[in-house]
Amino acid sequence: MGQSLPKEDLLIRMQRDLKRALSKNPGKVSWAMVIDVAKCVGCHACTIGCVAENKLPPGVVYRPVLEEEVGTYPNVRRRFLPRPCMHCMNPPCVKVCPVKATYKTEQGVTVVNYKRCIGCRYCLVACPYAARTSDFGEWYTQNTPELPGKLVGRKQAASGYENKPAAEYGKTWPDRGHGSPRGNARKCHFCLHRLAVGMLPMCVTTCIGRATFFGDRNDPEALISEQLASPRSYQLKAELGTQPSVFYLK
Prior knowledge:
- Strand 2 and strand 3 (75-82) form a beta hairpin.
- The longest helix has 13 residues, at 10-22.
- By secondary structure, the protein is α+β, with helices and mostly antiparallel strands.
- It is globular and about 60 Å long.
- The chain has helices at 10-22, 45-54, 92-96, 122-126, 154-159, 192-195, 202-206, 223-228, and strands at residues 31-36, 65-72, 75-82, 102-104, 110-112, 132-134, 185-187, 212-216, 233-234, 246-249.
C-alpha cells in the first residue's frame, strides 16, 4: 500500500522550525541542509529559483543539479544530485583566502565579503566540491540589439532583471556595470537575507518534490534533526574531513 500523505506540507513545519530558531541566541543556532536524492526528479526548479532570487549573471550558479546515468542496459536510470555550497565546518576555501574575504558566521554559514575579495580565485581551486564560481561581469543581454522604435531591446530587457540590485547578505549591491560582486568569487549563502526576515532559502521553497530540508541542527524537535538521524544520511567526500553542513539521504 502507498504511504498516506502528510497532514501538512513539510514547508509549514520547516517554517515553524525556522521561527523557533530565530527566537534563539544566534550563537546557539547551527544551520544545516538535507537533500533527499531519492525524491529529486531533476526538475532544476531549485537552480532557477536561486538564479532569480540572487540575480545571478551568466556563468554563476549557486545550486547546480548534477546528473548521472546508473545501471546496466537495459536497466538504466538517471540520478540527480543538487550540489550547493557544503558550508563545511572545516572549509578549505577559508584557509587559502589571502585577504580573509571568506569566513564562517557563528551559525556555521560560509560567506564571502565582496568588498574585500580580490578575485584571485584561490578558493575556487581549493573547494573539493567545485561549489564556487567567479563573476566575470557578463550580461545575458550582451548581444541583444537596441533598435529605435522597438519595445524590446537590450536596455529594456536588462532593466527588468540585470540592472536590479541583488539582495545578497541583506545588502543592496550596485547594478552589473559597477563594482561588487562583479569580479568576485560567488557561492551559495543559504539565502541569509531571507533567513533574516523569517523566510526559508529559495531552493527549499521551490523544490516540487520537497526533497530539500533546512533548519537548525541544534534543535532536536526540528524536521532537519529527524532527517539527520536517518540511517540514509551521508556527506559528500566525508573522508576529506571538511565536515559539510549539507547532508544527503540515499
